[in-house]
Amino acid sequence: MTGGRDVAVTARVGIALGITVAVCFVTGLLSHAIAHPSPWFGWPVAPVWLYRFTQGLHVACGIAAIPLVVVKLWSVWPKLFVRSRSRGRLGVLVRLLERGSILVLVAAILFELSTGLLNIAQWYVFGFYFPPVHYAMAYVAAGAVLVHLAVKLPVIRRALGESVDKDGGAGYARTGPSRRTVLRGTWLAVAVATVATVGQTVPLLRRVSVLAPRSGEGPQGVPVNRTALAAGVVTTASASDYRLTVVDGSRARTFTLDELRAMPQTTQHLPIACVEGWSAGAQWSGVVLADLLAAVGADTDSDVRMVSLEPPGPYSRTVLPARHVRDARTLVALRINGETLNLDHGYPCRLIAASRPGVLQTKWLSRIEVLR
Q1: How far apart are CA 282 and CA 279, in angstroms?
Q2: How far apart are the C-alpha atoms of 279 and 56, rounded to whole Å?
Q3: Residue 57 above 70 pLDDT?
Q4: Number of Cβ within a 10 Å radius of residue 72
Q5: Exposure pattern of 131-154 as b/e (b: 16+ CB <10 Å)?
Q6: Distance between CA 335 and CA 286 in Å, rounded?
Q7: Between 130-160 and 88-120, two packed helices, what is the crossing angle to 10 degrees?
């Protein structure tokens, strides 16, 4: 016996890790489906905080999984190097397959957690485009977890039946912390990791979330991921001859900034939430998108393409589903928190719609196209 370094601890920590992986997998699939929608997929416009919740949960569970992985590896590490007692070629083969599945499981989860952590810190030291690779590896990690559970289910059942206070009986000699001590330390580490970072999603915890990548600070009280300088739009967005073009088939109309300001203005309190897990609520003011489309005789039953002044790139062109187009809370925003949009927040105007990833809330709008 080795105290807390045994299968009883491994099984309990593994269950917690499996739950966090499952939550990350489901919420990650949702985020990917929203950003890269299929015809069969529909994401609701209400409640307005829905994406803020699902993506915040995704990142919070990912961070909580880190101490769980560390403890699980610590608890099983010595056993990974114990020589197999299997006899015969079949036994050896089964043992090798089992060890191989564990290797895939560990590698996939470490890859997902490390790249996810680097992504929320926006430190892209890896040489690949994060979203599709992270998405693809999620299936590998989920599949490896299922295989591992199938192989180890009898062992897990027996281990969960053991008390964490069991001392091992006669001849027991503990050489490390007790099971209960290890588990208490694990749950404490998970709680600390969560509280120290979840403030980027939960405003009430921002003061104590000392490790949160986004504190809520930024121009006009809202963080910025991509600045106007990084997007290469400083000159075009600030130009005096700026025009917003709205197109519906053969009909088109351009609007100056003054004309947009002269239209009826609406204010909505909406959160902006990014895939990195941070979110912030703000008062957005501007023209209701449906009203702007009506000004050129367009209806709101079609999807709409939002085009940025930003040079062509992954998210310089986004498609807004018809359900969002129809929603009265969807704005071509001109102001934030009572002030004219800062250049880094999308001046002269930007899209803001309920329950959408921040990367799809197109900034520096130049053109709006009704899709048929």
Answers
A1: 10
A2: 8
A3: yes
A4: 22
A5: beebeebbebbbebbebbeeebee
A6: 6
A7: 130
Please say if the pLDDT value at position 1 is more than 50.
Answer: no
Cα separation, 335 vs 322, in Å, equals 24
89-97 contact pairs (CB < 8 A, 24+):
none
Total residues found in the chain within this entry:
372
Q: Tell me if 235 sits within 8 A of 348, measured CB to CB.
A: no
What is the SS3 assignment for 337? coil
Question: Could you give the count of Cα atoms lying within 13 Å of 91 in the half-sphere of its Cβ?
Answer: 6
Q: Within a 13 Å sphere around the CA of 247, how many CA atoms are in the beta-carbon half?
A: 13
DSSP tally for the chain: helices H, then strands E: 10, 10
Q: How many CB atoms lie under 10 A from the CB of residue 257?
A: 16
The helix (run of H) or strand (run of E) holding residue 284 is: strand 279-288
Q: Report the predicted TM-score, pTM, of the whole model to 2 decimal places.
A: 0.90
Domain 229-370: give its CATH superfamily. Oxidoreductase, molybdopterin-binding domain (3.90.420.10)
Distance CA 324, CA 355 (A): 9
Q: What angle do CA 299, 304, 308 make, to 5 degrees?
A: 135
- CA angle at 178 for the pair 174 and 179, rounded to the nearest 5°: 120
Token readout for 157 is 């059942």
34, 53 Cβ separation under 8 angstroms: no
Task: Note the pLDDT tens digit of each residue in 86-108.
Answer: 566 766 676 777 777 788 889 99
Distance CA 246, CA 295 (A): 9
Q: Is the dihedral of CA 173, 174, 180, 183 positive or negative?
A: negative
Tokens coding 58: 């995704």
The domains of the chain are located at 7-208, 229-370
In the numeric block, the tokens 């409640």 are attached to 47
- C-alpha atoms less than 13 angstroms from C-alpha of 288 in its C-beta half-sphere: 14
* Nearest Cα residue to 236 out of 154, 181, 316: 316
Task: Identify which of 16, 126, 20, 54 has the alpha carbon closest to the alpha carbon of residue 271.
Answer: 54
**Is residue 348 within 8 Å of residue 221, measured between CB atoms?**
no
How far from chain centre, in Å, is Cα 50?
A: 12
Contact (Cβ atoms closer than 8 angstroms) between residue 254 and residue 243: yes
273-292 pLDDT per residue, tens: 999 889 999 999 999 999 99
Thinking of the domain 7-208, which architecture would CATH place it in? Up-down Bundle (1.20)
